[in-house]
Protein 1
Amino acid sequence: MLKEAIYHRPKDNYAYVCTNGKLNIHIRTKKNDLNKVTLVYGDPYDWKENQWQTSTTPLKRSGSDQLFDYWYVTVVPPFRRLRYGFILDDGSETTCLTEKGYYPKPPLDDTAYYFCFPFMNIIDIFKAPEWVKDTVWYQIFPERFANGNKENDPEGVVPWGSEEPAPTNFFGGDIEGVIQNIPYLKKLGISGIYFTPIFKAFSNHKYDTIDYMEIDPQFGTKETFKDLVETCHQNGIKIMLDAVFNHSGFFFPQFQGVLEKGENSRFKNWFHIHEFPVITEPKPNYDTFAFTPFMPKLNTENPEVKEYLLEVGRYWVREFDIDGWRLDVANEVDHAFWRDFRSEVKAIKQDLYILGEIWHDSMPWLRGDQFDAVMNYPFTTNILNLFAKQSISAKEFVENMTSVIHMYPKNVNEAAFNLVGSHDTPRILTECGDDIDRVKQVFTMLLTFIGTPCIYYGDEIGMTGSQDPGCRKCMEWDTENQNTDLYSHVQKLIQLRKKHPLLRNEGDFSFVDSEHLDCLAYTKTNDEKTILIILNTNKNQVEYRIPYNVSGKTIKNLWNGEETKVSAETWTTHIPRNGFVILEY
């Protein structure tokens, strides 16, 4: 038994309470090292004849990555408090792990040996808005989605789609263009829109804010935006705006004041100025996003800055009834700011969705006091590596994603924002080498996995494009130039997701161990049904034997509606090259 590889802590993703009041406990061990793990537990105040009263229950193996096995168990402490340890068995040795170390058998003379979950306080439970788990998002880059009002076109606008996207060109996309195309989004099945920034800014991407309290004139007016929110809400569509609180734009008035007055500016402490006079070249002498002088970092510890930005957060929720904030470069802003931000905006709208842009392990932001979710870029990386770049095997994908899933509690994973393309990445069809079948597999997984999925505008009709700015082409509205077959595929997946709760976030998720090395399979299960999704990454058709006893069950193919009554213990299905099946039994 390799004890050095065993890890547990009574917090975060290793011990947490879900909204159903159950306590979930996890432990990590060396891969293939243990045969059995058992939880020994009890109420810390339950004693009889000077001996602590305990119970035991086995843990289940919930998955394995390259190095570790993960085990879990769910218990319901009757008095909402628990002391516990783990009995570990590798077939030749048995030992008990407690907070104070390893013992040959569970010590019962003092509960202080054991891990402690002091009390299951309701206020501490991580709770993302329930509606998010059922939402299918659609990301819109406003300048490139649709031009609904030519009267607000910026100076120098070029005809729609007449040239390749560039950092400096404008095509006139606006809010009215979105309103006019709500029927398109509703028909597709979209229930949430995530907008990249719409506030007044210099660039076409708007991540260099000039005025956080104004809609950029090229997009329309506040009245137009209010019409958009009302129209979307009438059609069952939520609205999430993008907030850039880490940095402002170069032409933000307060930063211009610092450039003009230097050390005498009342706004000098709004930013992180290293010295005066302020210089921008060859390298800025103030903190910025990356090293661009055009995005000076805001000092969110400054009380004036903090209150200004908190009011931005409150204002658009209070006055326009938006449903979510996506927070740009969220990991570079201090935690104290985000705690106050959550408190302020949730006081106005309790079920507001707060989404942080963080590309790495985000547990410090996901303890229920800051964000409801982060953008699930590890999911993006792994799904692209498997289906698009074909640089990893199905087995490697499972190992990688098992590690990611076990980084967070189950209720955090259910609200994770899953994406396969965005304004910062090449188009999914381009990533897949123009192979539509592989794109269909990507969307199949995106729309049947745990979390809340997001589609980048135009990906559903097969738009192409390289890295930014190539991925920011104008939306193609001519159906002659759309891949309507791909559109129908995505539309059908969304319909299935809405019809079958297990395809959303109900039940237990598990990857399937299989003899088919080229197939990725996973199940979603509740007490009544199981849905099995299988994706074939092989260039040839495969025969997939379901590794479960399905005798007497009726297996329904949710994609084509075919039903099969199984009489044998095992059952085999045929999966075409780069194809998939979605089975319910």
Protein 2
Amino acid sequence: MDLLRVLVVDDDAVLRIALKSLVAWQEHGYQMVGEAQDGAQALALCQALQPDIVITDMKMPGMDGIALIRRLQVMPQPPYIVALSGYDDFALVREAMRLGAADYLLKLELEPAQLLQSLAGARSRGHGGAAQNLPGKEERTRVLRGLVSRFYLDEREMKTQLQAVGIAFPTEPVWCLLIKAGELYRFEETTEEEYQTLQFSIFSIVEEIAGDCLHAYAVEGKTGEFYLFAALKPALQGQTGLVRQTAERMHEMLLRYLDLFCVIGIGQGDASPAGLTAACRQAAGAVRARFYAANQAVIEWDGDRMPDGGGSSYSIAPQRARLTAGIVAIQEDAVRMALGQVKHDLATLHLPRNALLASLLDLYSGVREGLQQSGRAVGQVLRASGRSLPELLSISGIGEVQDWLDALEDDLCAFIRLENAEGYQKAVQKAKRLIEERYDGELTLQELAEELQLTPGYLSALMKKYAGMNFSEYLVHVRIGHAKKLLLGTTDKVYAVASQVGYADQFYFSRVFKRVVGLTPGEFRKRGDVR
């Protein structure tokens, strides 16, 4: 398989580095041939290197992403273009897609699986040529992701895209089922290969169960989230109770076969792009309501109980994501910045009451999700700001909103200061010592967390904060470090070295070693390199 040549364009050096290290490029059929910090530099590199794929930011000094795409499209063989954007770049993404960008990626939700899925379309287009007549799964995935993110061009264009990739529903209404995993560390603390296996297993179970009575399409969202758009098969039209029964069976089977606990939110709409987007939004709202649903595993959207801010142009999603991440990472500055932006937005935008309450519920669910991932009881942390659903819905004015946000900030920052004062850095030091002692065996995050009397998700967050990498990354770091010493200091065969550092599969060890070191174990030994 020929390697597709990739050029990355972004004025943020940190993001360029993150992109370059996000996946094992060559193993997936790609070659990183260059990087540029603005459009003018990228254009010169494109003319010299002729990349097959260009991943470009939209906002850059000088020649921005839009200007670059215009110039690239007049080349004899335009590259396959993927736009990088933030939550607030809707107009720029719309223009980029109109000019010929094949896909877009949200920077705050950049994941290896989504990046690879986005790039997969380049091969079917023959290094930037015309797309094949028959739509592939990656094309359907791209369109469904547009629905999930609500980041598509307009109603008419999305309808055309749905038709072009063969997405159609035989009956109405159409339901959206959002499956949200309860243990995100299961996705974050994995190798790329393990992640792909888990993702494949989830899709297989969900699609097989849905196939009994539903005509359905599945797509992955953010980490640990899976969406299913589905309609009843014609022979079963009207038997709406089957949708909930299907969701309950999915929950049961995911728990039984993958030991994966999840909650499933259900929303409903018609088959139009606006109806599908509304169903998706309702499903997300139902999942957010899980904290008030008395431990229900399947939650149907209740518009009478939960306000829907879908009619508002304001989205609290970016700040919710930053706030949740700040809580999990135990970062006071991140919490203060996210809440400070929310206070400013809500004070100046004068949102309708329905949109205001929807934003507060969304934000509060993010707080509770962050505390849940950290293994901390809400009542112990939110001493002054803890609210029940009726209490939140009774908030009447912006003054009361600001008072609650102030109390929420005080509670969260007090929690973070206490966590830091309690010396969790020592727990990480102990975790590192235990990894050093047991790296050659079957050591798991779950086992280590139990020994340290922490939750797995919280230990993963502590490792990221104090060790600079999560448990899985640190374990690989230790194993490869010892492997390098053995390769240079002994004549043991590669399979023996692999076994001594905890890898039963020599070929898997070799892939990991090359991804980390840049050389195969044999090449490393021949060079006598001590890097």
Protein 3
Amino acid sequence: MGASLIFGYAAEEMLGRSAEDLFTIADQVDGEPQSEMQQARARGRAGDFRWHQRKDGSLFWADGVMTLIAGEDGEPLGYLKILRDITERKLAEDQILRLATLDVLTSLANRADFDTRRSEMVALAERTGQLLLLLMIDLDHFKEVNDVLGHQAGDQMLQMVAQRIRRVSRESDYVARLGGDEFALLQLHPPSPASGGTLAEKLLQELAQPFTIDGHETKISASIGIAVCPGDAANPDELLKKADLALYHAKHSGRNCYHYYTHALDEIAHRKNADHNELKRLMHNDGCDIVYQPILDASGRTAAMEALLRLPGYLGRQPVEYALGLAGEIGLLPELGIWVTRKACAELRRWRDAGVEEVRICINTCAKELRDQGFLWQLYLALRDNDLSPADVEIELTERDAIELESTGSKVIEQLRVRGFTLSLDDFGTGYSSLSYLRTLPVSTLKLDKSFLKEVPEHTDANAIVNTVIRLAHDLRLMVVAEGVESAAQANFLRAAGCNAFQGFLYSRPLAADDALAWLLEGSH
């Protein structure tokens, strides 16, 4: 009766029916198809998980075992088959397996499946002599989409990006989302290595088209790194490493572009790795230094000293932003910021003990540091250990970092202001230059970047812009500091425009700690 229900036959239809009719879904044994009964005859017992067929032709998955019943002479007398319909369980297991290899958000393959398929496709390319292209695709500034539009909008964009990549790629291409805003595409047997560049161009063009999310139109770009197997690498891990190097180069070449891996990138990677190690060594062996550049008020009095990081050797010959970028890449930016903060606060205490009063120390920070509770705690400890107050320290951060903190709902800038720190918007004019943000950001000082002063006072358009920015800042009750003042003509123009303070080579280059103290003790600048 049970067999009748499982196989869909009436009881009378089962009587006299050959068991061979019921168990015809064959396995392969030594390359030849064998039914379950044939296997039982050969081995005395057979069975496992397998598909079976009902009367109506539908298949069901069952587990069970078939045992040969033999006579004394060893000849088969019959068979005993015990089985259980486990179709639902098998489909559930298949679904779990599918989910284990699927990126749920985009319905692309996930990182685990990518690692498996990459190995399989590299092996196939090696075995058959076919080319294999790996394209690593990373969205540019995707974090800003999440920060400004929210994570739900960011998820919608990732889904649309996945669809666009699929639309541009071949049906046989393998596409995966590796996590965050990073995707990968494997293409086996392209016409030539140049096909990777053609595909990358199409991807960049497709992704450059506006995205409409919740009725709002937004844009994004991507950077793409390309590696070729077997030319660039002969194993899966090397192929991924080479494509990552190419992607890194694309990002540092201005983004919204693609780059192939070349051997020259290995040299760049070695250089970067050496620089990482050198920065770690300098930080852990007190090999970094700080210099101090004066900021003078309109009367010529030194109102503050900006602490500036300086490094020896090769790193010291690079812009300081390079070292800060290195620190960010290896997760040491908060630690470096803490070191600068403690060193600068200790130096300010030395100035106080030498009789210098009413001079603040200016410390450059960034959003990553200010989001780090360890950094903030160390800032407070540095003040306490050196008997200083928040009013003695001015926190400088760029407008990009300030807007990033505000747009993500962070209250850290407001908290610092309430605690008594002076907060300034540094390098105004190099980021968003968004005058509307000046109304909402809880800062008290605006530092005009030196790029504003390049054509002042020779060009009337430049003069008009500077005058307007200073006037607007004053209307918003902000102090204005001009950076990069290099000539008396610039200083006179800025003074007439109402600029509150000045910093630049016209007054002083950055000074070593002892020279900075001597400058302050002279007191007549």
Protein 4
Amino acid sequence: MDAKTAILEQKTALGIEFGSTRIKAVLIGADNAPIASGDHEWENRYDNGVWTYTLEDIWTGLQDAYTKMAADVKEKYDITLTRVGAIGFSAMMHGYMAFDKAGNLLVPFRTWRNNITEEASEKLTDLFGFHIPQRWTIAHLYQAILNGEPHVADIDYVTTLAGYIQWKMTGERVVGVGEASGIFPIDSETNTYFADMIAKFDEAVADKAYSWKALDVLPHVLTAGDNAGVLTKEGAALLDMSGNLEAGIPLCPPEGDAGTGMAATNSVRVRTGNVSAGTSVFAMIVLEKNLSKVYPEIDMVTTPSGHPVAMVHCQNCTSDLNAWVNLFREFAQTFGMEISTSDLFGKLYNKALEGDADCGGLLAYNYFSGEHVTGFNEGRPVFARTPDAKFNLANFMRVNLFTSLGALKVGLDILMKEEHVQVDQILGHGGLFKTKGVGQKILAGAIDAPVSVMETAGEGGAWGIALLASYMINKEENETLEDYLDAKVFAGNAGTKMDPDPADVAGFEVFTERYKKGLPIERAAVESLK
């Protein structure tokens, strides 16, 4: 079935994901391949000590991305888009959006990037015997309680960005299980929140005498394939400013960028894994068995079907790298040279492959914000070198690529070297992999394992949530998500595989030791630049 017929017959699925720097809409056809897209660039704000996006940022960005996607459909196929087969929404996981009974946002959206819940994180981890990262929704809620913030008494609903969008589109207070696993710990036996931990939380805050219990204000949990409501007239009007989009379209459970990354890389089976590398970077490994103990560097989440996943989530990846590339752009413009973005990144990234395996002794920290894996609540980007280090462009670009994965390697070394987790394949996706072969080669060296990248890697999570929407309406009876992806999406497409270069592996080990030893430099930078 060609794309135009798929659109006319509503054999399509639309996925929209709110990434850290881009909101992207991807429409896929009956064969699950992208047929139209649109995006909107945005940036978080640091306002009164909190990383946030305003509600205006959220809605104008969503509407712009949808409008561009619909315009792409009109230009390519001469069709005014009025319906699709299904819709899925996704967003960067975690964070805190609290609403009162009237639907008013009680405090500005607190995103995953905030490291302001250390006390709550530690107390909940002790209470549950389960690692609760600072960015998790329940940590934000409990920290607000510990802070004595008056808005907590007025809470009627607490959710994430993906859950908020779903609520406004359908009226349903639901999230997918993968997204839920970044809100509160999930029991993979029941695919919902651990009942005993919910009880412990309610008991811990009982003295506050709030009118609500945890289950009253948290979103309901669904799994991949479940129907998560239909687009209301109000939702359609919010999404499509032209008024052409019709109500009644089914929506799949909203998922976080971790879950959509797993779907987009076919990494939902046991012994598979993926690395999503953009503004932040995280690795997801689907486990055969539970880890032997709790690690503060490792988060336990789930696939969109509810299988347990070990997650190494790092706050920082390409932001500092992009800043350096933009500095080189400014340099070129000063001399009257205009260089395309793809050429600029391509040339500089490939230059890194000419550098010394260990980056010539250079050291860098890409900490735009705090980094919990290495114990930082705040960050300061730092580049350092000794006078005798080999300081040239190749090594400079190489060290900035290495450090984009530096904290990730610290966490993955725990899984691979201490827990001896076995992985059959790792797939990479996200912006780091857009320059062919470079990010893939660096990652393979970092983890000492083969890395595959698919042609769809650049589509990322928007395509992943579109696949989950497609699965909901197109799955056979009792067909699992794993089987659906294998047979109907990725059949014959395992991606381009790259084995680790022993020189890169050895070089990354040397760099990692330097990275760990140099952490006091980063701490000094944080203290001295306050």
